[in-house]
């Protein structure tokens, strides 16, 4: 499916780009062709004007100069005086003389004149040039210039073969076509690469979604199995129903917590709009939280210690319920790994205008290879055999930190253990102006 999606994106992008490319190259080819044609036409008119001026001024033309003029401009010239060709024109080959005679006949028809006798006036035309198609199919650009004076009248006929011009234009069009095809193929490759980069996040998201569904189904199946087993046992042994109902209630609560965590993770960034933001004093909040969590620590055989800074800490704009949930996850994680009769320190720190909550334990710590993965969904360290868990707690903690525009990471505790740090923006910076950062910024 993703391959077809990538192919469709590539074809659509290549098609749209190809249309634009074809239009641009067509315009460029036309402009280049017109410039070339205009240049040859200007050269033709310049050569004829130069020849006419020199003939009128000096009344004498050298054969070598005429030959050079014809060679440089690709033209044939017919010079007549009082209706008779000059000697230079009589020396031409039979084919050239035939062609020039056809030019002369066409000029007489085009301008309605008789070049064998003295015209009464010079032909009046806005287009001094005309075209001639020879019997062999070649096309010529032709012109007629008459000069009527008191003693004589002269006729100048010139023809320029357009075969070279047409060949050049054909080659130019073929060149632009080849360039267009090559550029389009290159664009197709680029579009295929870019489409692959664009589809890659979709593929990763689909893979993560599949893994998420599989892992969630596995985690939900465990409490469901326990609930069904104990419900069956309660039906078979009514006298021991209270024991089985207690287990069912415990597993039901566990499943409820698991479902809440799954819903939060699936909501992602959209959960930001559901935060109940309020102004919170971090020091007071941390003291209240420590008081509420202390019975759980005592039950687990650990102590809770709060460490507050000497200076005043700026206020927070946060969802106190979600922040309490985040710290509860970190404390629960510390209670799982910290040795008995040790102290879990809850530390409040101000750093660069931001507020940090730190949960410090004296447990085994987090090995460096696992630090980038412990915040992933359903991940648990291979060596974790202390207490079973589904691997969602730290993923939820990261999501909650990101929703508040903060970040979370883990670092070593001096003397051994792990320190989980949650950094949140203070109220004067504003939650709305902050964006979540990845928890992978390790210190």
TrEMBL record:
Q: Which reaction does it catalyse?
A: ATP + protein L-histidine = ADP + protein N-phospho-L-histidine
Name all Histidine kinase domain ranges: 215-428
Give the signal peptide, or none: 1-22
Q: Which domain of life is it from?
A: Bacteria
The molecular function GO annotations come to: phosphorelay sensor kinase activity
Q: Where in the cell is it found?
A: Membrane
Question: Which InterPro entries does the protein's record reference?
Answer: HATPase_C_sf (IPR036890), HATPase_dom (IPR003594), His_kinase_dom (IPR005467), HisK_dim/P_dom (IPR003661), HisK_dim/P_sf (IPR036097), Sig_transdc_His_kin-like_C (IPR004358), TCS_sensor_his_kinase (IPR050428)
> What keywords are assigned to this protein?
Kinase, Membrane, Phosphoprotein, Signal, Transferase, Transmembrane, Transmembrane helix, Two-component regulatory system
Q: Under what name is this protein listed?
A: histidine kinase
- What is this enzyme's EC? 2.7.13.3
* GO cellular component entries: plasma membrane
- SMART domains tied to this protein: HATPase_c, HisKA
Q: Transmembrane region positions?
A: 172-195
Q: What is its main location?
A: membrane
- Please tell me the species this chain comes from: Candidatus Allofournierella pullistercoris
């Amino acid at each position: 499916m993703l391959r077809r999606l990538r192919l469709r994106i590539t074809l659509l992008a290549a098609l749209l780009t190809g249309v634009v490319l074809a239009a641009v190259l067509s315009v460029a080819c036309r402009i280049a062709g017109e410039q070339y044609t205009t240049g040859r036409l200007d050269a033709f008119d310049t050569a004829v004007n130069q020849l006419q001026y020199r003939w009128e001024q000096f009344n004498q033309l050298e054969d070598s100069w005429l030959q050079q003029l014809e060679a440089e401009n690709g033209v044939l010239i017919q010079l007549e005086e009082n209706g008779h060709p000059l000697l230079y024109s009589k020396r031409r080959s039979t084919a050239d003389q035939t062609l020039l005679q056809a030019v002369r006949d066409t000029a007489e028809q085009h301008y309605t004149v008789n070049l064998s006798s003295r015209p009464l006036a010079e032909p009046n035309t806005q287009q001094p040039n005309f075209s001639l198609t020879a019997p062999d199919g070649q096309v010529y650009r032709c012109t007629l210039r008459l000069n009527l004076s008191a003693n004589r009248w002269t006729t100048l006929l010139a023809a320029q073969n357009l075969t070279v011009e047409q060949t050049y234009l054909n080659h130019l069009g073929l060149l632009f076509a080849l360039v267009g095809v090559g550029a389009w193929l290159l664009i197709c490759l680029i579009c295929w690469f870019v489409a692959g980069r664009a589809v890659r996040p979709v593929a990763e998201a689909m893979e993560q979604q599949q893994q998420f569904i599989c892992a969630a189904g596995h985690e939900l199946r465990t409490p469901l199995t326990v609930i069904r087993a104990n419900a069956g046992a309660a039906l078979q042994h009514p006298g021991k129903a209270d024991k089985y109902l207690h287990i069912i209630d415990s597993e039901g609560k566990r499943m409820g917590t698991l479902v809440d965590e799954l819903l939060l993770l699936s909501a992602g960034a959209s959960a930001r709009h559901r935060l109940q933001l309020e102004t919170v004093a971090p020091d007071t909040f941390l003291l209240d939280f420590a008081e509420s969590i202390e019975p759980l620590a005592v039950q687990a055989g650990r102590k809770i210690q709060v460490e507050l800074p000497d200076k005043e800490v700026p206020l927070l704009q946060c969802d106190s319920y979600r922040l309490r949930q985040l710290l509860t996850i970190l404390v629960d994680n510390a209670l799982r790994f910290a040795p008995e009769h040790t102290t879990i320190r809850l530390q409040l720190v101000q750093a660069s205008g931001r507020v940090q909550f730190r949960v410090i334990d004296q447990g085994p710590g987090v090995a460096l290879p696992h630090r980038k993965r412990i915040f992933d969904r359903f991940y648990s360290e291979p060596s974790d055999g202390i207490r079973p868990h589904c691997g969602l707690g730290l993923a939820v903690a990261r999501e909650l930190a990101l929703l508040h525009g903060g970040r979370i990471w883990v670092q070593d505790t001096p003397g051994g253990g792990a320190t989980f740090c949650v950094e949140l923006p203070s109220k004067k910076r504003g939650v709305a102006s902050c964006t979540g950062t990845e928890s992978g910024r390790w210190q």
